[in-house]
């Protein structure tokens, strides 16, 4: 980056120590933004493809005249932007919200101090009480892509059966992991060719919840066919998507729910609870099946036809992949964010 940081246009802050879904979505789109604007990442977990702004470089920007985008995605990043601007940094403040809930007073106060607001869905926008540009998250369709040979991808995992059905995300009630386990305890005895895979971290505060799930799995004698991997490196998670024939999105509430479009991009058939961006991403009955949240009976009813007919599941997965390519690519997301930036610069 020539004359860095003097010619900088955009700062992408990540002021959160724990790796989270917000971090993941930020890491994916930031390198694409860096192709459109002179951008730098400030904070932990910097991805490849975007310059990293050190604290020393950042301090050099104080009282610079040219405007500079500060694109926050969390309250603490909005607070930092408001304070820094008050101290003389030439910041234009942008905030992206994925939350689908009423905001606290402090969040509302901060939002009113932003120069531009982005919401990841119309539902998220409805809770903001201010004008917002609706820009859905995108996914890297080259990384999240169908495998050359799904059977071979499944075989390398050394799981029983011939097909995998997955549910990814932290093991907790909010993600509906219990709904998935309940459905699998009922369905797997009927479909011996399937193995269920839960990919996600079990945090200390969720140990009791996870232990209860394990007891249910043991009571059903399905220990070898409902696999909980724990937290995995992101490249391993990407490979797990390619092993799946079906993906179950079971969240009870969600901001956006990136696993929806990651699974679709990888060509998995999708059954999705109506949380997060499910109704935005899924054409019900075409690129997936929508069900109520927290409903194991509905999950069983939606999954069973796909488990009974893996060829139909594969066809649905390919339609889902086509929808992601058309509407949920990272390049499309970055271009639309760029349209928000342009008048501010």
UniProtKB/TrEMBL annotation:
<keyword id="KW-0328">Glycosyltransferase</keyword>
<comment type="similarity">
    <text>Belongs to the glycosyltransferase group 1 family. Glycosyltransferase 4 subfamily.</text>
</comment>
<dbReference type="GO" id="GO:0016757">
    <property type="term" value="F:glycosyltransferase activity"/>
</dbReference>
<keyword id="KW-0808">Transferase</keyword>
<protein>
    <submittedName>
        <fullName>Glycosyltransferase family 4 protein</fullName>
        <ecNumber>2.4.-.-</ecNumber>
    </submittedName>
</protein>
<dbReference type="Pfam" id="PF13692">
    <property type="entry name" value="Glyco_trans_1_4"/>
</dbReference>
